[in-house]
Design a protein that fits this description.
Number of strands: 24
CATH architecture of the largest domain: 3-Layer(aba) Sandwich
Distance between the termini: 60 Å
Strand order of the largest sheet: 9-8-7-10-6-11-12-13-14-15-16
CATH topology of the largest domain: UDP-N-acetylmuramoyl-L-alanine:D-glutamate ligase
Mean pLDDT: 96
Shape: globular
Structural class: alpha/beta
Largest sheet: 11 strands, mixed
CATH class of the largest domain: Alpha Beta
Radius of gyration: 25 Å
Length: 487
Amino acid sequence: MKLGNILKNVEYTAKNALDPEITDLIYDSRKVSPGTAFFCLKGYTSDGHAYAQSAVEKGASALIISDELGFEVPENVAVIKTGDTRLALALSSLEFFGDPAGELMTVAITGTKGKTTTAAMIAEIFEHAGIMTGTIGTLGIVYGGNTYKTDNTTPESYEIQKAMRDMINAGCKAMVIEASSIGLKHSRLAGVTFDVAVFTNFSDDHIGGVEHKDMAEYLFCKSLLFRQCRHAAANIDDPSWKEITKDIKGDILTYGFSDQAQLRAENDRLLSEGGFIGVHFETKGLRELSLDVGVPGKFNAYNALAAISAASFFDIPDSAVIDGLRVAHVKGRVEPVKVPGNYSLLIDYAHNALSMENVLTTLRQYNPHRLITMFGAGGNRPKVRRYEMGETSGRLSDLSVITEDNSRFEDVMDIIEDIKTGLSKTDGKYVVVPNRKDAIRYCMENAEDGDIIVLAGKGHEDYQEIKGVKYHMDERELIAEIIEESK
């Protein structure tokens, strides 16, 4: 594709008036090859301008810069100067991949909490309506049963545009993305017009350091999403909703428990029966539905309302909403796993005291017969984390099952002793089963009717790290093996 066509929406001045054929857009100098255009991005710790000469030596046909370069660029290399190379990369990537968002149903979600769960819910609703859907977010780029890991919740613009084109080539008709405030701040979504933007909630987070200087900037960055969407869904129960969505030119659908909400939830209650743990509620207003949502905690009623609101801008039948929300879950986050007994088995990524406290406090509300927590702690990490996890589990669990978890270069038994130090501050019961598969087997074989068992720490991870080596280990596979071996 000609450089001029790629840059058609970018404001720039050019040196060495050339219009070369460009084979790819690159912002990591290590990946430069002949015929590519190299974008000099400024990061927190490095500046792409420092690698411009290396890019030229590797055969780059064009440099996209915002600062002056400290070397003489050969006349056969186009030099494009623009005010913001990240914005230029976003607008160029959109052209390079042929504006794939225009060929998809697109939903972008922003908010302090709930983005990942809401994205999973929307995708599940779409899939139940027969619409193959890809997602981009915390868990990576996911479509067609495959997951491609990314460095950020909202990846760089090039990765987003490429992912959407790949999704289309794989048969996807829809894409749901988590739009982080940092991603919006750094123009990773620039140029894209979304069919629907969703606002979940707003609270203190990501303030200080290299993220946002204060709450005002944090809120402003989230509001940027609503300048580039046709429709919006907003949580009316959050006091920030009007400020965050004020720049939208399209229509807004409000959701919440408030009487003023266009999609209103009522008669909510926690639901736990036959291994199913979630929340029940009914909706009034825009849609009248009776729903069982398969993710625990009342706060997930809000995420479900957000998903229903987003789906309501498309031709999605009620049956797809009802069925999709019943089975929707986020891999590794209070993820239910089917077991033969009359108890609930959940996999969760909780790997520190705070995340463990949140999960166990939520599950305590279901009044289980027993709440059993199986967990370990990572090696070569601060010991205080182990003490705190032991104390938290001892306080909130009826039984703690202590085992291994990425011991790295430490001895598993030394880590377990540290966990026991925290447990000793409580009167919580515990057992030690060092091998993780044996620990899962212990939990399953000793489960009683009405128990809730949480396998904490690994979540979506599919490996166990021991002495510098990552061994494949997926807890879902271990559970299936244990069930098969018990037959």
